[in-house]
Specification:
Length: 100
């Protein structure tokens, strides 16, 4: 083999190793700032998701409540269907001033 070629290959391998080593350490230094940045991005996305879905759920609940109120007004009732007030046996047996 030609001695110049051996020196050239050795020099190229040394340069590649040096770049690889430097790159590894630079990325090691950047890990924490990247993690912090990603955490902020993920927190912002989660907050937007929660706010959007809670607003949509609130709108659905408001629409349903308006519908129930309108139906009750038309029927002359002031109770929500399925949530009528029942007097329990303990309340019937108790008289004012007595413990249940």
């Amino acid at each position: 083999m030609n001695i110049r070629r051996v020196h050239f290959v050795t020099l190229m391998l040394t340069v590649c190793f040096t770049l690889s080593y430097t790159d590894r350490h630079v990325l090691g230094l950047l890990v924490e700032p990247v993690k912090a940045s990603l955490a902020m991005v993920l927190a912002a996305q989660m907050l937007r998701y929660v706010l959007a879905h809670s607003a949509a759920a609130s709108a659905r609940v408001d629409a349903r409540a308006q519908e129930i109120l309108q139906n009750n007004t038309e029927q002359g009732s002031n109770t929500v269907p399925g949530h009528e007030q029942h007097v329990g046996a303990a309340a019937v047996a108790a008289t004012p001033g007595q413990d249940v």
